[in-house]
Amino acid sequence: MQIQDILTVLEAIAPPALQESYDNAGLIVGDPDAALTGVLFCLDSTEAVVEEARRKGCNLIVAHHPIVFRGLKRLNGTTYVERTVMEAIRQDIAIYAIHTNLDNVHRQGVNSRIAEKLGLINTQVLAPKTEAADIGSGLLGNLPVPMDEAAFLAHTKQALRTGCVRHTALRGKPVHRVAVCGGSGSFLLPFALRAQADAFVTADFKYHEFFDAEGRLVIADVGHFESEQFTIELLYEIIHEKFPNFALHLTEVNTNPVFYH
Q1: Segment 14-36, tens digit of pLDDT
Q2: What is the pLDDT of residues 171-228, one digit of tens each?
């Protein structure tokens, strides 16, 4: 079995052509024709994750975020990105990233897992690409039973295992229609408003962007890592379904760089 066998399965779910123009998804380090010894799934590739892969006998890391995003002009170990890439090459460990292409698929995508955790039903793509209604950014769905806003925020905090939820003012209205976007989703606020969502669950809203809700919905910012952390188990399940007897591991390294005091 080769590394390419894993990549073929992943790319059948989230074709590389679906990634955004600014992204750098795909095989970042390594030889796709190399014999596969094991796979480690993570959100972020770091030095600690590369060491974990070596320790567990995995020569392929499948990450959501690309470790090389803006390009590398030198490799001298100055940054954690350079050190991670250098160590992966040194240990002969491949690194593959499946990023916005996985964000942009409805079924078995990043946002479908968030919607599942929140218990949303009847989901649809929030901002579909013009060529396909089932491809695009974010998801929109309904809670089976409308919830009080405070209860919904508590539910979201527990379901997404986040230390806190930053949110706009409560409106005193029930939450039924919910928009979600893993990671930085502020660009989708106009779509959530247009869809008449009662709440928008995402991350990385800036201070002034909270004003843009204008009391028309509740923005619930749960944190970047928190919104995407379940992507790891999603990727594991996709590969485990095809190769149930192969050595597959979920990372035990918490790569979230944000802490709550």
Answers
A1: 999 999 999 999 999 999 999 99
A2: 999 999 999 999 999 999 999 999 999 999 999 999 999 999 999 999 999 999 999 9
In the numeric block, the tokens 């923005």 are attached to: 219
Residue type, 104: N
- Domains of the chain with CATH codes: 3-101 (3.40.1390.30), 104-228 (3.40.1390.30)
d(CA 62, CA 207): 33
Residue 63: both structure tokens together: 């990450």
| Token pair for 160 | 């997404």
Dihedral pair phi/psi, residue 172, rounded to 5°: 75, 25
- Distance, in Å, from the CA atom of 143 to the CA atom of 176, rounded to the nearest integer, reads 5
Other CB atoms within 10 A of residue 215 CB: 10
Distance between start and end Cα atoms, the chain: 46
